[in-house]
Amino acid sequence: MSVPRKKLSGGQRAVLAAPYLWIVVFFLAPMALIAKISLSHPAETRPPYEPTFSIDDGLAGVLAKARTLGFDAYRALADDRLYLDSYLTSLLIAGVSTAIMLMIAYPFALTMARAPRRLRSLLIGLAVAPFWTSFLIRVYAWIALLKDEGLINHALMALHIIDAPLSIYATNGAVVIGIVYSYLPFMLLPLYSALERQDPALREAAADLGASPLQVFWRVTLPLSRPGVIAGCLLVFIPAVGEFVIPDLLGGSETLMIGRTLWNDFFANRDWPAASAAAIILLALLIGPLLVAERARLRAEEEPS
Amino acid sequence: MPLLSVEHASKRFGAVVALDDVSLTVDSGEFFALLGPSGCGKTTLMRLVAGFETPDSGRVTLAGQDLAGAPPHRRPVNMMFQSYALFPHLNVFDNIAFGLRRQGASRVAIQSRVAELLDIVQMQNLGARRIEQLSGGQRQRVALARALAPGPSLLLLDEPLAALDRKLREEMQFQLKDIQRRLKTSFVIVTHDQDEALALADRIAVMRAGKIEQIGSPPEIYERPASRFVAGFVGATNMIEGFVARDDGGWFVAPFGRLKRADCALRDGARAALSLRPEQIVVARDGEGVPGVVEDIAFRGETTQLRIGVAARQALRVSCTNGNRFSLGEPVRLMIAPDAGVLFAEAE
Question: What ipTM is given for this predicted complex?
């Protein structure tokens, strides 16, 4: 494999460098900072951890301080049930929400993709319309809907479907509802774009070869939409795991999501190293499987057959 | 009983009439071509048979059974799509096995049937290839194998060779004809390419604007076209406009002279058009005949195409096997036999 590389001009290099620069400045640098804090010790200082490096330290000073860095925060996390529970609850809530979103969004996206062409842009517009109002306000609105004396319970009781109000608000269920509602368009759009691209002749060919409409769906439509399913699931699952606002507003005191636990450690306990370590572990938890999956996909593609 | 029978089928899409009272039959084991320019309704007719469209009126029967209401997946008819429509997520083997699996064939039966088809289309050992790794010609053959796999009594082929380059297309024509003859399956091919239809089909239906203009064998269509449109669409021709004179036998009066006609049923003075194939005109250096001048010479290998300027600023295309004896600007004589060509009555 010796593909001769074309020499890039200075301008081309600059254009290519821009996104990398962006990632370094706004993503990698903050991540490095958090990684460093996760290796520090909590202290009654400002900022509340030690050591802090400064230019005045000199090389010897920096080295001496660097020696005090350690994995104490990680060890503490491993011993703390609270964190383990938070991670598990977060993964569970995000997983359940993702599954529900997939089941809601798929038929939705399929209908949009099969709608007459002139209707499609209108349907997409409607799907993303909620984004035009504040996310926070929409989540607050759900409080009004879900509360014991909220609109949903009122309506159900007025219709004599239930006798006593359902306690949905301040439960994990309410958090799932909030996440499903807020993130649905992120699931919908990749699914739609994957389904819309499918050549209708493929479905006709499958039907022609004896596949019933249901078999056409299972054998052709669904497998071909796999990239959209994967993209949609990642797009909602990853931010849902770290979600803070929705569990804070809709969850109960027992809703232990990692975002909330982190927030408590940062702002209530002022234990920045522990919170940073938790954030790093979260990142590893999310990115690890992703990298493995991507490698497997690349290997499958390269495989000569 | 014919295998396929289409009776008085009509179909409109909004204001567009795609099929207008079309009837035809296809026999068992026959290679049938639907030939016509784009938009003539040939694809609609094919999709009607496959079950992707329903006729507004008329009916389609297969082996005597009315297909009305039968969805595509319940019809013993398979189709090879113009775009091939191969499943990109499946390899060659699984593409071909798709229809067999829907029939509930056993694993062993599928293995041997797919191997048999790979053999027929000369793609042995390529079963594990992914579709994107195949060349255009290979994709075409997988599409054919996939459509043949369930053993349809009738195979529909929508422009099966259109995406191939010229050389491959000619090679595939022979293979297609060979496979059809061996399997004795009825093939109905849709094409806009008259050479393809003439070379492949036992019978051809020439379509125009939703109607069938003529159904016949390739020599019938070529030598005795039923209309001016068919004469012009199938094969090259010289369409000469003039009128009929009936003094002392039948004559066709062309702008460049009077031509004796052996068969002329038209009345005296009727407007008419004479379709003369380039090879029906004989060129000579001298003798009787229409005088003309060689305006252009195109060497085509086994034949040479000449453009001969005749009177009234008209030119005739002439095809002959010894055309390179002539030179540009040379005066020649054109001999047109009284039974050459076909005379069509023109609307007054």
Answer: 0.86
